[in-house]
Specification:
Shape of chain A: globular
Largest sheet of chain B: none
Strand content of chain B: under 5%
Oligomer: heterodimer
Helix content of chain A: over 70%
Order of helices and strands of chain A: HHHHHHHHHHHHHHHHHHHHHHH
Number of helices of chain A: 23
Distance between the termini of chain B: 18 Å
Order of helices and strands of chain B: HHHH
Structural class of chain A: mainly alpha
Strand content of chain A: under 5%
Helix content of chain B: 55-70%
Number of strands of chain A: 0
Largest sheet of chain A: none
Radius of gyration of chain B: 20 Å
Distance between the termini of chain A: 69 Å
Radius of gyration of chain A: 22 Å
Shape of chain B: elongated
Largest interface: A-B, 65 and 58 residues
Chain lengths: ~500, ~100
C-alpha cells in the first residue's frame, strides 16, 4: 500500500514541476498575446500532444473507472458500446479539424466561443452557450473528481476528502498556472501512465484469472448474461446504435473536442494525431473493458462496478504496478478536467468578459482568466463533496446535453454559408430543451429504446436550418472570412 | 449534394470563391463519415448477428470478431487512409498560390 501511495506522490510531484515550467512559459508571453498562449498555446502543438489532448480529454472517468465498472456489471455488451468511442479523434479532428483550424487562424479565434462569435456575430448566442457549457460541464468535472477521490480512497485508504484534495488540487495548480500548455504537457506524463497502467492491468487480470478461456468458462457458469450482446435483453440494438452516435458521430458537439482544432501546428500534426489517437483510445478501451469483465469471473462480490479497477490495482498486481495503475486511472480523470476547465474558463473569462466590458485590458483579462480557472475547479471540488451515486449516467447526460446544444450550430456554421445567428440561437435552445424533455418527461430510452441525444441533435440541426432559411442571410464579410479563398502570399506581398 | 462537396454549389454570395482548403475539409468530412459509418456497421451489426460459439481465446464469436479484431483492422485502415488520401495543406493566413491550386 505504501508503494502505491509513494508512486502516486512521485507522479504528482512530476506534474507540479511541469506546472512551474508551463507557468514560466505562459508568463513570458506579452500581455496582449496571453489569451492565445493560455487557451491555444500559441497554436504550436505536435501530433502526440494533440492526440493526447483530445483523446485523454474525451476519455474520462467514464472510460477509466466506469469502463471496467460497466463491463464488470453488464459484461461484454458494454465493450461493444465503448468500442464506439475508439475513433473519437477521427470524429472530432477528422470531421471538422481542417475547417476549424483554417477558420480559427483566419479569424484569430483562440477559444471555442471565439469561433461562434466570429461566425455568428451574436453576443446572445455566445452568452447562451457560455451558460450551457458551465451548467453541463461543472457537474461533469465534479463527477471526475468524485471518481478520483473514490479510487484514491479505495486504493490507499486515505479519507474521501483527502483523496479529493490529492486528485483535484494538483489540477487546479497546473491549469491555473499554465492554461492549456500546462494541460498538454502534463498530458504527456498522464498519457504514458494511462497506457502503461491499462496494459499492466489487463496482463495482471488475465494471469490472476488463469487465462481468458478459464474466465469465460467461469462467467458462463455464474452469469451467462455477461457473455450476451444485449446483457440478457437489457440493452437492445437500438440503444447500442444510439451510443455510436453519442460517443461517435456527435462527439464534435463536445466543446473540449474542438481544442485540438484550435491548437495543432500543421496538417501533418493533425493527420498523425487522428491515427495516433485511434491506436491509444482503442487500446485503452478494449484493455479496460476486458479487465472489467474478467474481474467479475474472479470476484463477483464487489459492492459496485466502479470498484473493479481499484480492486484490480490492489489485488492482482504487485504494489509498484498498482501505483502506476493508480496514476493512470487518476491521470485519465485529470486530463479530462484540464480540457473542460479550459473551455469553461475561456467561455467566462474571455468571451463573456468581452461582452460585458468590450475594452477590457489584456492585463485584467489575464488576472480574470486565472481567477476564473480557480473558481471553476474550486466549484467542482465543492460539488464533489456531496458525490452522486452513479457517475456514469451524469457523464452521459452532460455529453448529450452539450451535443444537443452545439452540434448543429457548430457544424452548420463551418460547412453551410446560409447558417445565421437566428438559426444558431434557436437550434441551441430548442435542441437543449428537446433533449431535456426526452430525458426527464418522456424518457426516450423507455419509449423508443435509444438515447435521447438521437432526438436532441437532429432537432437542433433541423431548427438551425429552418430558422436560418426563414431569416436574413449572414453578412458578406463573415462569409468572406470563413469561406472565401484567401489572397495568396504572392499577391499580398506585391 | 455532389456539387456541394466539390465546392461548386455554394449557396449565397456565389461570387465569393470557395477556399480550396474548405473544399478539402468538406471532402475529408464526407470521407470520414463514410469510414466511421462502415466501422459502426462492422462492429454493431455482427455483434447482434454472430452467435455465442467459441472463438479466439474461448471468447464468444460476437466478442472476438467485431469487438476485438475489427477495431484493430480499422485502426490499421485509418493510418493508410489518413496518410495516403488526406493531402497536406497550409494553415497560413495567406498561403502560396501553388499550394492552394494543388488542393483545388
Amino acid at each position: 500500500m505504501d508503494a502505491i501511495l509513494a508512486i502516486f506522490i512521485l507522479y504528482t510531484v512530476i506534474l507540479l514541476v511541469i506546472s512551474v515550467y508551463s507557468y514560466r512559459v505562459t508568463e513570458k508571453a506579452p500581455a496582449e498575446e496571453f489569451a492565445e498562449e493560455f487557451y491555444a498555446a500559441g497554436r504550436g502543438f505536435g501530433a502526440i500532444i494533440v492526440a493526447l489532448l483530445i483523446g485523454a480529454s474525451l476519455a474520462s472517468s467514464g472510460t477509466f473507472i466506469a469502463g471496467p465498472g460497466m463491463t464488470y456489471t453488464h459484461g461484454f455488451s458494454w465493450l461493444m458500446m465503448n468500442n464506439a468511442q475508439n475513433f473519437m479523434l477521427l470524429t472530432t479532428l477528422g470531421f471538422a479539424g481542417i475547417a476549424i483550424g483554417v477558420a480559427a487562424r483566419s479569424t484569430g479565434s483562440s477559444t471555442y466561443l471565439d469561433l461562434f462569435m466570429n461566425r455568428y456575430e451574436s453576443k446572445w448566442l455566445v452568452g447562451i452557450l457560455a451558460v450551457l457549457i458551465t451548467v453541463f460541464l461543472v457537474p461533469y468535472i465534479s463527477t471526475q473528481f468524485v471518481g478520483a477521490a473514490r479510487v484514491l480512497n479505495q486504493m490507499t485508504g486515505v479519507g474521501y476528502e483527502v483523496g479529493l484534495a490529492l486528485g483535484a488540487l494538483i489540477v487546479l495548480v497546473y491549469m491555473a498556472a499554465g492554461g492549456i500548455r500546462g494541460a498538454a504537457l502534463t498530458n504527456l506524463v498522464q498519457g504514458a501512465a494511462m497506457t502503461v497502467g491499462v496494459v499492466i492491468m489487463l496482463i495482471g487480470t488475465i494471469r490472476y484469472a488463469g487465462g481468458v478461456e478459464t474466465a469465460v468458462n467461469e462467467l458462463s457458469q455464474i452469469s451467462p448474461a455477461h457473455l450476451s450482446p444485449t446483457r440478457g435483453g437489457v440493452f437492445g440494438p437500438e440503444f447500442g446504435l444510439s451510443v455510436f452516435f453519442l460517443v461517435g458521430f456527435f462527439t464534435i458537439g463536445m466543446p473540449h473536442s474542438v481544442l485540438g482544432g484550435l491548437t495543432y501546428k500543421s496538417s501533418k500534426s493533425l493527420k498523425r494525431a487522428i491515427w495516433i489517437g485511434g491506436i491509444l483510445v482503442t487500446l485503452w478501451t478494449i484493455f479496460l473493458c476486458f479487465s472489467g469483465v474478467l474481474t467479475y469471473a474472479i470476484n463477483p462480490e464487489l459492492v459496485s462496478g466502479d470498484s473493479a479497477a481499484p480492486w484490480l490495482a490492489t489485488n492482482v498486481v504487485p504494489d509498484w504496478a498498482g501505483g502506476i495503475m493508480l496514476a493512470g486511472l487518476i491521470g485519465g480523470i485529470q486530463t479530462t478536467v484540464g480540457g473542460m476547465s479550459v473551455i469553461i474558463t475561456s467561455s467566462i473569462a474571455k468571451n463573456l468578459a468581452e461582452i460585458v466590458k468590450p475594452d477590457i485590458q489584456p492585463s485584467t483579462s489575464k488576472k480574470i482568466s486565472r481567477i476564473t480557472m480557480i473558481i471553476v475547479i474550486g466549484a467542482a471540488i465543492l460539488i464533489a463533496l456531496n458525490p452522486p451515486e452513479l457517475i456514469q449516467w451524469v457523464i452521459l447526460f452532460s455529453i448529450g446535453g452539450l451535443q444537443s446544444a452545439t452540434f448543429g450550430p457548430l457544424m452548420l456554421g463551418l460547412f453551410w454559408r446560409r447558417t445565421n445567428k437566428y438559426g444558431a440561437i434557436a437550434g441551441a435552445i430548442i435542441g437543449t430543451i428537446t433533449y431535456g424533455l426526452f430525458s426527464e418527461v418522456w424518457p426516450a430510452t423507455e419509449i423508443f429504446g435509444f438515447h435521447q441525444v438521437m432526438i436532441g441533435v437532429p432537432v437542433s440541426v433541423a431548427v438551425t436550418i429552418i430558422i436560418s432559411l426563414a431569416t436574413e442571410k449572414p453578412s458578406r464579410s463573415v462569409i468572406e472570412q470563413f469561406f472565401g479563398k484567401p489572397k495568396p502570399k504572392e499577391k499580398v506581398s506585391e | 449534394m455532389i456539387k456541394y462537396f466539390r465546392g461548386d454549389n455554394i449557396g449565397i454570395y456565389e461570387d465569393i470563391e470557395e477556399d480550396p482548403r474548405l473544399k478539402l475539409a468538406k471532402r475529408v468530412f464526407l470521407g470520414f463519415v463514410i469510414f466511421y459509418g462502415l466501422y459502426t456497421l462492422a462492429v454493431w451489426g455482427p455483434s447482434y448477428i454472430l452467435g455465442m460459439e467459441k472463438s479466439l481465446f474461448g471468447l464468444p464469436q460476437w466478442v472476438a470478431i467485431p469487438n476485438v479484431i475489427v477495431p484493430w483492422i480499422f485502426v490499421g485502415a485509418l493510418i493508410v487512409v489518413v496518410e495516403l488520401f488526406v493531402p497536406d495543406f497550409s494553415l497560413e493566413e495567406h498561403p502560396e498560390e501553388e499550394t492552394l491550386e494543388e488542393l483545388d
